[in-house]
Amino acid sequence: VLFVESGGGSVQPGGALRLSCAASGFTFSRYAMSWYRQAPGKERELVAVITWTPDSTSYADSVKGRFTISRDNAKNTVYLQMNSLKPEDTAVYYCNRITMATMTPGASWGQGTQVIVSS
Fold first, then answer.
1. pLDDT tens-digit readout, 69-79
2. I need a surface site. Which of 21, 55, 91, 109 has the fewest CB within 10 A?
3. pLDDT confidence of 3, banded at 50, 70, 90?
4. d(Cα 53, Cα 63) in Å, to the nearest integer?
5. In terms of pLDDT, which residue wins out, 42 or 55?
């Protein structure tokens, strides 16, 4: 199982970024997928979830209305569109598959992609 996250960077407050995560090593279309983030000195937190099909999404309250998770099963890729970014969104962002019954991520993690929101 392998995840390769990309698309992070430095933006000003109010800006936008689109993160991508290429997954391999498992049947992508059969798994719900998720984005997590970890800010310095804080625990990793669940940000967004998307089921396999039909696509249903859910979000942490802190990002609801600003972030959108989507997936392309043909490309084994999950995306996170982040709009109206705030300084508190600064973190390393990771994707993972997720078990919906227990809301727990898989054991394997990628290297993540750094997002910095600062003026």
1. 999 999 999 99
2. 55
3. very high
4. 23
5. 42
Tell the residue number behind the tokens 């227990």, with chain if given.
Answer: 102
Tell me how far apart the alpha carbons of residues 44 and 58 are, in angstroms, rounded to a whole number. Answer: 17
Inter-residue contact 106 to 97 (CB < 8 Å): yes
Give the rounded distance of the alpha carbon of 12 from its chain centre: 20
Q: Tokens 């705030």 belong to which residue?
A: 86
In angstroms, rounded to a whole number, what is the distance separating the alpha carbons of residues 61 and 54?
23
45 contacts: CB under 8 Å, gap ≥ 6: 36, 37, 38, 60
For the beta carbon of residue 113, count every other beta carbon within 10 angstroms. 22
The residue behind tokens 């800010």 is: 39
Would you say 65 and 11 are in contact if contact means Cβ atoms under 8 Å apart? no
Query: What confidence tier does 52 reach under pLDDT thresholds 50, 70, 90?
Result: confident
| Distance in angstroms (rounded) separating the CA atoms of residues 93 and 114 | 6
Chain CA centroid to CA 27, Å: 18
pLDDT-based confidence at 54, cuts 50/70/90?
low
